[in-house]
């Protein structure tokens, strides 16, 4: 029997266990584990295995040759994206911390990717993205400052080709996005992002319950 529109099923312990199982379904290799360890040492949160696998699947489904990543971190998400890219594809990854990008370079090399498969650009997303080519990307993955998410969305739509995909990581904000209690500015901005993507006539959207929430949308042709 279908659930009445506007009502949500209770989140039972079994459903939580199933979500956890799905999020950890994909086994990770030594290169990914090394990158995760570096992320943990730096006090960063890297994408979950389920989120990484979803990004890899989306890149492969899009037959992506050019992907832009906002938030290099230590390379966990980048490895997954490179695994989904075409063999001649290039990942352009942006991060304000060059030291983290050095870890990502090591991780990519350990994962077997040639140096020319990734282009590293240090800097703030909103300083770098305007310099990238209009319509030149198949997928844009955003894992940066939530306060910049609406501006990053606008830039991402400019960068994407018709049929390209934009993804935002962390939109659940550890459950605060749906919490009715008073929330900080970054959570309020994530709510605005979700509303903007859902209501856009330019996008077809889906919210995936992997990791801390992965918001995905396809730019209509």
TrEMBL record:
Biological processes annotated in GO: methylation
Record-linked InterPro entries: Cation-dep_OMT, SAM-dependent_MTases_sf, SAM_O-MeTrfase
Native organism: Streptomyces xanthochromogenes
PANTHER family documented for this protein: O-METHYLTRANSFERASE RV1220C-RELATED (PTHR10509:SF85), O-METHYLTRANSFERASE-RELATED (PTHR10509)
SUPFAM superfamilies: S-adenosyl-L-methionine-dependent methyltransferases
GO molecular function: methyltransferase activity
Protein name: Methyltransferase
Keywords, ordered alphabetically: Methyltransferase, S-adenosyl-L-methionine, Transferase
């Amino acid at each position: 029997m279908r659930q009445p529109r506007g009502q949500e099923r209770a989140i039972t312990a079994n459903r939580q266990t199933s979500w956890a199982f799905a999020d950890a379904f994909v086994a990770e290799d030594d290169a990914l584990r090394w990158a995760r360890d570096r992320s943990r040492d730096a006090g960063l949160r890297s994408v979950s295995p389920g989120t990484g696998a979803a990004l890899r699947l989306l890149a492969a489904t899009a037959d992506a040759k050019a992907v832009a990543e906002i938030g290099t971190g230590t390379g966990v998400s980048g490895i997954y994206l490179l695994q989904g890219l075409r063999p001649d594809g290039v990942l352009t990854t942006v991060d304000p911390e060059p030291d983290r990008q050095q870890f990502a370079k090591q991780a990519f090399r350990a994962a077997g990717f040639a140096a020319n498969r990734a282009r590293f650009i240090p800097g703030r997303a909103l300083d770098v993205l305007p310099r990238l080519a209009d319509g030149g990307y198949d997928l844009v993955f955003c894992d940066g400052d939530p306060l910049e998410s609406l501006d990053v969305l606008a830039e991402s739509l400019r960068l994407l080709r018709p049929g390209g995909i934009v993804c935002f990581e962390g939109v659940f904000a550890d459950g605060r996005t749906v919490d009715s209690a008073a929330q900080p500015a970054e959570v309020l901005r994530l709510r605005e992002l979700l509303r903007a993507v859902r209501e856009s006539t330019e996008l077809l959207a889906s919210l995936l319950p992997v990791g801390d929430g992965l918001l995905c949308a396809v730019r209509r042709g």
